[in-house]
Amino acid sequence: MATESWNLVVRQVFRTIRSSVLGIRTIAVAIAIGVLAIAASVWRGAVERWMGQELRSLAAVHLNPTFIFDDLIYTLARTIVLRGVRLTSPDPESTTESIAMDSLTAVLSNIPRPDKPFQMQRLDLVGPTLRLVRTRSGQRQAACWVSRSC
């Protein structure tokens, strides 16, 4: 009889220890997931800031109009979504939006890296608007207004 009660006590102790270990493992896994989520969020924010700077500097080199966007979302591994995209007149006296769109999705040919230029595989425009603008002298602005290479 005493042996049976002793066995019950030992079993209860082992159950308690086992449930405590499982509880500690569960808490450790939850903490690890939380730390990884925070790290991924910080990393993603840094990557998106870098991409935004790169896109703005590329636009400044290759485009005459000012390139503006409200929000950039990078989806691993090769998709960039820009929201509230606008190209405004390079004339400092005018802020005419010549080209505007709700969003622009760029699928990249490769994963972006600081030592390699962005290569676009596909661009999807959502809600694009093109406004043809006349200069102060009454002439229409040609396609060369958009590109610096003309």
The total count of helices amounts to: 1
Secondary-structure element order, N to C: HEEEEEE
Estimated radius of gyration: 29 Å
- Quote the average pLDDT: 75
Q: Enumerate the spans where pLDDT stays under 50 for 5 or more consecutive residues.
A: none
Major sheet size, sense and barrel closure: 6 strands, antiparallel
Structural class: alpha+beta
Instruction: State the separation between the terminal residues, measured CA to CA.
Output: 100 Å
Q: Strand-residue fraction?
A: 25-35%
Give the overall shape, derived from the CA principal axes.
Answer: rod-shaped
Number of strands: 6
What would you say this structure looks like, in words?
The longest helix is centred in the N-terminal third of the chain and has 61 residues, at 2-62. Strands 1, 2, 3, 4, 5 and 6 form a 6-stranded antiparallel β-sheet that branches. With 150 residues, the chain is an alpha+beta fold. It has one helix at 2-62, and strands at 66-68, 71-75, 79-88, 97-108, 120-126, 129-130. A hairpin with a 3-residue loop joins strand 2 (71-75) and strand 3 (79-88). The N and C termini lie far apart (100 Å).
Question: What's the quick description here?
Answer:
The chain has 150 residues and is an alpha+beta fold. It has one helix and six strands; from the N terminus they run αββββββ.
